[in-house]
Amino acid sequence: MLRYSVTSSNTVSLITGSTINNTSVAIHASVTNGGTTYSVTSLGSNALSGTATANVSIPNTVTSIEQGAFNNANLTSVVLPSNLQTIGDFAFGSNQLTGLTIPSNVTSIGSGAFRENNGLTSVTVLATVPPTITTANNLNDTFYDTATQNRGDIDLIIPAGTGAAYTTDPGALWTGFNSVTENLNTGDTYVYNFITYEVISVANSTVKVIGYNFSGGSVLNIPATIPNGLITYTVTEIGNNVSIGNTVNTANNITALTIPNTVTSIGTFAFPNNSIETLIIPDSVVTIANGAFANNLIMTSLTLGNNLEIIGEFAFRSSNLGSLVIPNSVTNIASLAFTDCGLTDLELGTGLQSIDEWAFSNNPSLQTINSLATTPPTIGSGFNETFGNHINSTQGSTVSFRGNITLIVPDGTVGAYATDPGALWTGFNSVVESSTLSTSNFEIENDIKIISRSNQIQVKYSNNINLETFAIYSMTGAKVMQGNKNTIETATLSNGIYILELKFNEGRVVKKFTK
């Protein structure tokens, strides 16, 4: 039974003398006596002090918890009411609290209010104006810990932008905590190691990269996660204009870029006009937006992730790639995506459905296209030529390069690609079915390991088989090298995609490799 004292015509306060029959106590928002209903607005001095109360439910009608209300009880946790304004001296002293959230309406917390809760490790304060507290290295300190004789074991979490008011401004009282974390809201920005992040979701603790300060250097390593005090955020997006601000034509100086395998999208003009030579897009990335890596003129190596679906307009325009493999996951390549990229060999994945106009324009050295899709992707022709020299629209024409290119297609699809009525893949130098480039005709794949380096290939295999000969073919089927050694020097080969045929005493294996 809980005892109350009337404090006004319609309010009461919980007072001492209550009979507690178990460790859980529910304080009601209102009580009725003699036909009158009273609102419970305060918990009086020493109301449940010294009881065995382990869990308590406090209604939101309570605005004050007075001196010693729960002192020396047995509380292991407490949810303070949202309308609470004041907490009295020693109100929750000598309990077993480990975590605590102080509502936004609290303006003052008395001396020793949470003293000797020696397991208390985390305090979250929701008030943007710091509540007054007592700071002293003795039992009167609001958060005195017997073990440390201060508050040095407690991590403090406060609202975004209030760090100075709580901890560093003249007269700030919330000092001496183990750590201080400013809680961020959705849309808030946060700088960590020269990279600016924006919070995407507070609930999921996710952020996106929105800017980079070049004081951090020319090598940009984006981490998978970033800390903010007690909170760890996962980097899931790269936003627009990361390295260029709002000026698309700005020249930048990023020479190396690492993208973590947590990022799913890369925004418009994220990293154009830099000097990135080698780029690996992780498997987590699904979309690369317009102009994301345009005008990285010295880029010679590009590896696209296996879950990439969309490549935006002029995403990689103007580079020096040579060879390029489009993963099976990609469904669309937008216009001008790989124009002026110095391409010589191109492999298109099985999932590709459409390639927009001029996507691979201005690549006059392109010699081989290996399309793996059994249903031919749609491509542009005429003025909208996908593989050609893109001429300005005012000149009214586009020169096709198809006559210089060997097209390799899956077995049985030459008609669909090139000869059936309405076929779009016409005018190529030749169309070759891929059967001559098929893989192994025997089951020893697991016994063979091929290591490809810049100027050398090593073939390793078990003692159960013997290498008899090797041959290397270009993607047009021309034999360019042969021999019988398991270390193959490839320095004389031009950059591109090749076929390696290995003949063993037990059969034949065929592998593709990129030089």
TrEMBL record:
InterPro entries linked to this entry: LRR_5 (IPR026906), LRR_dom_sf (IPR032675), Secre_tail (IPR026444), Surface_bspA-like (IPR053139)
Leader sequence residues: none
Keyword vocabulary terms for this entry: Signal
Keyword Methyltransferase among UniProt keywords: no
Gene3D superfamilies, alphabetized: Ribonuclease Inhibitor (3.80.10.10)
Pfam families registered for this protein in UniProt: LRR_5
Name this protein carries in UniProt: Cell surface protein
Gene source species: Jejuia pallidilutea
